[in-house]
Write a structure and sequence with these properties.
Blueprint lengths: L1 E6 L9 H16 L6 E7 L2 H4 L1 H5 L3 E4 L37 E4 L3 E8 L13 E7 L8 E7 L10 H20 L8 E6 L6 H13 L5 E2 H8 L6 H10 L2 E6 L4 E12 L13 E10 L5 E8 L1
Parallel strand pairs: 1-2, 2-13, 7-8
Antiparallel strand pairs: 2-4, 3-4, 5-6, 6-7, 8-10, 9-10, 11-12, 12-13
Helix pairs in contact: 4-5
Length: about 300
């Protein structure tokens, strides 16, 4: 499951403790009925109450993305882009928050890799946004799988204006695609999810398609694959709402020895009957079927995003 939980500190956001606690409690209730996602990835899990969601929900394993002080391991852009940033919209003020990324898993996590983006625009620069990858052992699968969580630069909400926000976004997409390609997953399937902030911007969507779906990352969009296969969809109205926003994405890549395909979609965290939401995003999930082509073993897991 992937979910942007809007776990921002005050005064950026009002007190979020009640809603964040409710997210953890609902995931725990899903666990009690055997319906919890096996793997959950969160974005904007900045505050302690957001980071505690995994513990409240009963997940045994947890890893987090780049910390507030983690330096980028790739060069900053040339041409004075960073130096030209405006302090009025949060640039050149340093990092005041970590990446807000979290991966919770029912299955053992063997290894972790992190990437801090060296370029950002606007208020997004106050957080050390990036990506985190976890190598996870799933029962019934002979080889561990790779799960990647990320949160990319926003557009209008960044306050930086389109040229700067677009440049930072394209640079981050390039770095993320290279990061996914560099994981050397070999014959392991790769699952990628997060808040990609694509939205309705054609320039963003074009670059996203070129680098994430067709480039070195070579990923497939779970929703598109499910549409072709006519997967069952729970909470279809909230799923349609999330798809229309085009921010929260779930993608996958099989391997030569491991087949993976989406078999069901759901939106377990959406609108209540009165229209209220626990976050400003819908939490969506995909159920994957993973089969070893060389052995008869198979398994089913579920993953969620913001």
């Amino acid at each position: 499951m992937t979910y942007n939980v809007h776990g921002l500190p005050w005064p950026i956001a009002s007190d979020r403790s009640a809603d964040l606690a409710a997210i953890g409690t609902r995931l725990r209730t899903m666990r009690d009925t055997g319906d919890q996602p096996g793997i959950v990835v969160l974005q904007e899990a900045f505050v302690d109450n957001a980071k505690a969601i995994g513990r409240t929900a009963g997940y045994r394993y947890a890893v987090f993305g780049p910390g507030e002080d983690d330096a980028a391991t790739v060069p900053r852009p040339d041409g004075g882009f960073v130096a030209d940033g405006s302090r009025m919209v949060g640039e050149r003020l340093g990092k005041h928050l970590d990446s807000g990324l979290a991966i919770f898993s029912d299955y053992p996590i063997l290894a972790v890799r992190r990437l801090a983006y060296p370029v950002c625009a606007g208020y997004d620069c106050l957080a050390n946004k990036g990506a985190v990858a976890a190598l996870i052992v799933v029962p019934g699968i002979a080889k561990p799988i790779v799960v990647v969580d990320t949160h990319l630069n926003s557009n209008e909400a960044s306050g930086a204006g389109s040229p700067r926000a677009t440049y930072a976004y394209r640079r981050q997409i390039d770095l993320l695609a290279n990061f996914v390609a560099s994981l050397e997953a070999g014959d392991r399937p790769v699952l990628v999810a997060g808040d990609f902030n694509v939205g309705q911007d054609l320039r963003r969507r074009t670059h996203f398609d070129v680098r994430m779906l067709n480039g070195g990352a070579a990923l497939q969009a779970a929703v598109a694959s499910c549409r072709t296969a006519r997967c069952p969809i729970a909470e279809p109205s909230d799923m349609a709402f999330s798809i229309g926003r085009a921010k929260d994405w779930m993608m996958f890549r099989p391997s030569s020895t491991v087949a993976i395909r989406p078999i069901a979609l759901a939106a377990p965290f959406g609108h209540a009957a009165n229209g209220a939401m626990l976050s400003d995003h819908v939490g969506i999930s995909v159920r994957y079927r993973i089969d070893m082509l060389a052995t008869p073993a198979s398994s089913t897991i579920m993953m969620a995003s913001r």
